Amino acid sequence: MNQKELAAIRGTIRSNRRLDIIFAVAGFVALLIGVMAFVTLFAQMAYNGWERLNPDFFMNFPSRRAANAGILSAWVGSLLVMLVTAVSAVPLGVAAGVYLEEYAPKNLITDIIEINVSNLAGVPSIVYGLLALGVFVYAFGFGQSILSAGLTLGLLILPVVIVATREALRSIPIHIREGAYGVGATRWQVVRDHLVPYSTPGIMTGVIIGMSRAIGETAPIITIGALTFIAFLPPMPISTTAPFVSFDWLWSGFTVMPIQMFNWTSRPEEAFQQNAAAAGLILVFMTLMMNGVAIWLRYRLRKSISW
Amino acid sequence: MSASHTLSQGIESMEVTTVSDRLSRKLVRNIKERAIEAAMFAAASISVLTTLGIIWVLVSESYHFFEHVPIWIFLTDTMWTPLFSEPRYGILPLLMGTLTTSLVALGVAIPLGTIIAIFLSEFASPRVREVVKPFLELLGGVPTIVYGYFALTVVSPVLQYFFPSLPGFSMLAAGLVMGVAIVPYISSLSEDAMRAVPMSLREGAYAMGSTRFQTASRVVLPAAISGVLSAYILGISRAVGETMIVAVAAGMQPNFTMNPAEPAQTISAYIVQVAMGDLPHGSVGYQSIFAAGLSLMLMTLFFNILGHVIRRRYREAY
């Protein structure tokens, strides 16, 4: 090998190494852009909205005057809508996941359901809003109520819950099932006493991630016609007189946190932008908390499991 | 009731019951098992019912809409002015708004997402990955209305500082922020695909003297291409269906242009605009949001099917 060839090879190696380092730097910069975007977003909202974050902000209704406006009806509305969402999506999603993983025979119907679940995850959320407008609001006559909104978001996060349930069930080793069947348990007993309890943390992770997505969803709820200016609270669910529990709140008009924020964001006045920033801060904090809990649960799960 | 409890109860009672009692108890148990299975099947069918419901609602309301507006006018007219006294319903301006914002978003999200995925999968140490992945997931969990606020109050003014002619609402600002919002989806799915590539392929490449970048770009990326492409497709569906960022930051006037420096309305933003007003149930304006929704749904369906085809076509099996 003569000197010239050697030099050429060395040159190639050097340029390849340089390319390698350039890409490593590019990757780092790309990550930094993501981090910077998030930090700027958070810092800007904190800077603008910080002084609005006082107890009055949580206890006041929206108002024409920005300084008096608060998020009372919005956070109560979000809470109640989330309640309906959880009550509808969790049992349905877990049951569907258990069915697909443990019961379903291998046939065309099962295939259709499986393909359908994965396709539903790709449907834009605003289309769910149109579905709810046509079906829940008008065909079923639920109106523009907390019930309609909760069920809409329930359908929206159903695929998330189903997928999480299936993954959790799949990670349970087969010998747990064989042991239970071996002592004469029926299918339902295996599911109820073993599979569902053992997969609870995995299911919870999926449920929390789904709920954190639902709490920030704006488009489908606007589409069913949620009002943006609500200066009343839904009827109390608990009363001091018989029958003590009332479900009137399900039919009540409502607003939710992201809609309140959207409403304030679309106003030109500076003072309302401050309110929007404060509402956004609370919204981001809530989704971060929920996602954080989900990530922590998954981390714990990965560490603590030993079959 | 725990399993052992049920079991001991069963053994106790077995001693005193007759054969016919036990047979009927088995029958009851079988019926119960069947009923539970049926209930679970019903729960699983809800997802199919959801799809059927979506199709039914969109198609039936659009059908009434197309009775008033011929479908070829809907597809070819270049004006979308449903709230004027002489309304015109041409989907093209909304379609162009949707395409333009999506293209800007993908122009940000695909390069950034791919680079981050390669970096995390092939360059970063496990510890960096452990920290960054959850962080990206958090970023993906931020509500889109918050991103919309960010686009309007931070990104638009910053862009205007550099390009003073830019209007306060623009597809550029909305698209850029939408891109950042989509990065976590693309990077996380692409990274999963790259990590699924068997170690032996990498070891082969390194044994031949490849650098990390050569291994990543010539071995790992081609081997993971079906997963990476379906991550892109998912990103496209997200961009096309994204609503709140464009509703807040892209302006609300339909605009027959593909110039990202102009304000425009997307299909999804139009639906939001109509839903916030109070168009009476059954009017043409009310039906128009379902026609718009149908167009949106068909677009995402097209991309979903494309994703399936790509996964089939380019899947590498090891």
Automatic annotation (TrEMBL), chain A:
It is found in: Cell inner membrane; Cell membrane. Residues 75-294 form the ABC transmembrane type-1 domain. The keyword Nucleotide-binding does not apply. Pfam families: BPD_transp_1. Keywords: Cell membrane, Membrane, Transmembrane, Transmembrane helix, Transport. It is a multi-pass membrane protein. It comes from the Bacteria. The chain crosses the membrane at residues 21-47, 67-100, 120-140, 146-165, 214-233, 276-297. Belongs to the binding-protein-dependent transport system permease family. CysTW subfamily. NCBIfam families: 3a0107s02c (TIGR00974). This is Phosphate transport system permease protein PstA. It comes from Niveibacterium microcysteis. The lineage of its organism: Bacteria, Pseudomonadati, Pseudomonadota, Betaproteobacteria, Rhodocyclales.
